[in-house]
Amino acid sequence: MNIEITEVREGSHAVIPSFSFEAGLTGIYTDIKRTQIIMDQLKHRGYLHGNHEGLAMRLTVEETFRYHKDLSGRSVSVEEMVALFGLQHVKKTKVKNLSESHRNCLSFLRPYLYANEFLVIEEPFDRLDEEGRQVMTQLIRKMKDEKKTILLLGHNLEELLLMTDDIYRIDQSGFHKMDFNEEPAAAVEAEQPVIRIEKIQTKHEGKTILFNPPEIDYVESVDGSAQVNVAGKGYNCTLTLQELEKQLRPYGFYRCHRSYIVNLQKVREIITWTKNSYSLKLNDRESSVIPLSRAKLAELKELLGVS
């Protein structure tokens, strides 16, 4: 199966160069704007996966598996699927009471059962704990073994490398295969994304806790100190907002207000209260609403690719 991506231009600037790739498991390391353009292009070609998609909160995990098994006509047993998704210990739990990681694993049931030849997954490990990452890795590799074509889109190189070494980066001149066996180049092109693998260190109840940047929902200034917010909990960080802004920018974070840095992947809605008052509603556990400075509105829309 050969997948074509057509060129997208903004004036004389090629945002997405034309490209094609063959069947298999492929990763594209890029930014949020290009990710959305690629997904829009491919939405009629294959199955696009999004977290919490098609989940009925009132059903139990076991009932969810049984419903979709019957709907898909697949012959695999419910017990076998529950075990494959690593959810045996919560199979009697209602979906609404699951942890965020368990819900995100469960949401992959639909592409697992219904995706035909081609599947596109944005940020495959978004908001998954270590157990969930192992489950997702196993599921994606199983689908690859079934000869399905899978495209992973992400801005976290570390996570893409967990799945495949067939990874491309994008700049104006085209798609470039990343060779991880070569020595680093002496000079980096201006358009080449900055590649960083790092953790954000926080403190909580006397413990040092490290987060991957995509796990973070937003950062805020509380009483002059930075607080990193993950899955509804706040964790103190010794870095300043300015230092965190610099570290997190390559991972799709944006300083939306003098006291806030937001993970743009988590933005669900731009709320207009008045002509000069705006907020961002996030797709996190708490459906958080954080302020957006009026001066930042136009730049944010450009980054998100919205009008």
From TrEMBL:
What molecular function does GO assign, one term?
DNA binding
Matching entries from PANTHER family are given as:
STAGE 0 SPORULATION PROTEIN A HOMOLOG (PTHR37299:SF1), TRANSCRIPTIONAL REGULATOR-RELATED (PTHR37299)
Top-level taxon? Bacteria
Report what the protein is called. HTH LytTR-type domain-containing protein
* Species whose genome carries this gene: Jeotgalibacillus malaysiensis
Residue intervals of the HTH LytTR-type domain:
200-306
| Gene3D superfamilies from the UniProt entry | LytTr DNA-binding domain, P-loop containing nucleotide triphosphate hydrolases
Pfam families annotated for this entry?
Answer: LytTR (PF04397)
Q: What is the lineage of its organism?
A: Bacteria, Bacillati, Bacillota, Bacilli, Bacillales
